[in-house]
Amino acid sequence: MSYVLDGSTIRAPHSIEEDNSTQVAQNRVLNGNVTRDYFGSNKRVWKLEYVNTKKADYDTIYTIYSSYLSSGAAKSWQVTETNYSVSSTTVHIDLLVRDFSVKGIDYISDFTLVLTET
Amino acid sequence: MQSVNAAFTAEAKDRTRLPKHALNVSWKKATNTANRTFTIGVSAIGGSDLIDLEASGFGSPSDYRYDDESDYATRLEWERQLSLPLGGISKAGGEFALDNNSQRFTPDYMGGSSALFTAVGLPRRPFVINAGFKVNGVDTMLPQFSGLTAKPPSIDISNRVLSTYGFDFLDFLSSKKVESTGVFTGVTTDYVMEQLFLDAGITTSQYDFEQGANTIPFVYFESGDSMGGIIDELVQAELGHFFQDEEGIYHFWNRYHWNVSPYNQIQHILMTSQVINQEINPQERLDSIINSVQVRGDYLQKYYDATGSYATVYYYDVSDLDNLSEVPLIHPSGNTEIWIEFDDPILELDPQINWFVNTMRDNEGDYIGSVGLPALPVQLAKVDLFSKTAKLTFSNSSGDSGYLTYLEMFGRLVDTISSISVTRTDSASMTAYEERSITVENRFIQNTQWAELIADYILQFNAQPLDIQKLTIRALPQLQMGDLISYGGRELRILGIRGSFQASSGFIQELLVSPSNFSANDFFTIGVSTIGGEDTLGSS
User: Fold this and answer.
1) Rounded Cα distance, B111 and B98, in Å
2) What is the ipTM of this complex?
3) pTM summary value
4) Does B18 touch chain A (CB under 8 A)?
């Protein structure tokens, strides 16, 4: 049971949101019908929220993100949880704001990891 | 209309559709005469075989090897429209935009290093657009456009986008020069075009011409004339249409095209459920009116002298010259070419040409060449006739130069007897809409009856507004320019189609339509009109 990004197991997030992203053009025709043209296949977007995460766990994710930026190549993504799974696919990575909400020398932080299916 | 099966038609009309596209670009413009039309079970998906394109010689989309850029396309657009009211050549246009995040399309001079980096910045690259739907799990597409890019693409580095536009192969045809002079008598429009295509190396499989309604007494054009210009004039002289279709086939439609099956039958019934918008432009509606037509041409005939023999077509005598420096020089010990220009086109030259060559410009020296004297050193070795020029090649076996002091040539020429000018007006339309006139001037309109017929035809369809409308519809890629459709209980002729394939607006078309079906029913047409019917005889 794990979250695997670019072949490395990353910490399970505090919460995860999965969105569907379709490319669709919608028109309303003269008889009132609503019609749609769907272009290409559905692409999923995962938002992984991390709260009070230790530096080492953040560093693991940040290393993958840096590799994505420098290589320009999408990374593999897979989830194998008992009640939630994602078959291996490739994703673009966005690592948004890192918020140091807890004072102290351990630098525990909150951040959001966004994975967009290619 | 392109042929499609019931499943395709059902998918095109479905409220939820899965549009599919293919964009192929020949960046390197490598030719491949072994290219085949895509054959199910034989050709490989993503291979070099092309869907539904006809193989041929010059000006054919299937001559080239293509790269499949479908995965990078973000926008595809294309359009074609009949030229109205006079007809003639109709060129189609296409454009596309590609995602360049991968830097695939960045040229070498902008730092690119892909396999295309030296080719992508070049002009006139062939490209083909196909579009359709996923039907029962299979991507089923129809040809929509084939042509050449008009200029090197624009590349936006920061937004990572490449975009360009182009025209079909008729654009190339327009700039092609005729290689040999042509003179024809008593031929139809299609015959002349077939000869032009033959000379250009275009095979019969690459075109489909209807028989021209205009039998032209004299057709002439010079080597170096624009092929597209000649075709445009020929087709306009009979209000026909000339274009290249989605599959790359050149078509000539005469003006009776709309009278015959299947073009006089409804090809498709358009439902309201397919129509997104319907527009009419009141100003364009008025601008379409023509209620005063002037048609001009020349009445030509073959010219003979009073006895019915060859006429003098060129005469030159040095005694008539004021400036002896203009006397043509015949060089010693070799050949000299002298070009002659005629005032009118020459159908035939009499081999008997009278000429003298003298050692003195003023003809006071010795004769060293003359017609009928083969012993003299200067001889007329060869005569090449072009329609309004001739090249005379003189050979001189002596070491003395000479001067051409006399030249008389005989032949049959085409002479302009008189000018044709026919004016027709529609007084009711002029009262309602004020005078709106047009002048048609064409060298292939060569008799008064034909000019009258042209004027009457233009007035028949244009004295009242054409009521051209624009229908924006969910795309039906099988529709073609010229199709007759039914919408809202009315028959509409498709005068133009603009297709657009992009995620923001979907797969849509803008149809330019008119309730006028343009069938020339008033004139007796062999094979169409019935004996004892209403169509009139007497127009040539």
Assistant:
1) 18
2) 0.81
3) 0.81
4) yes
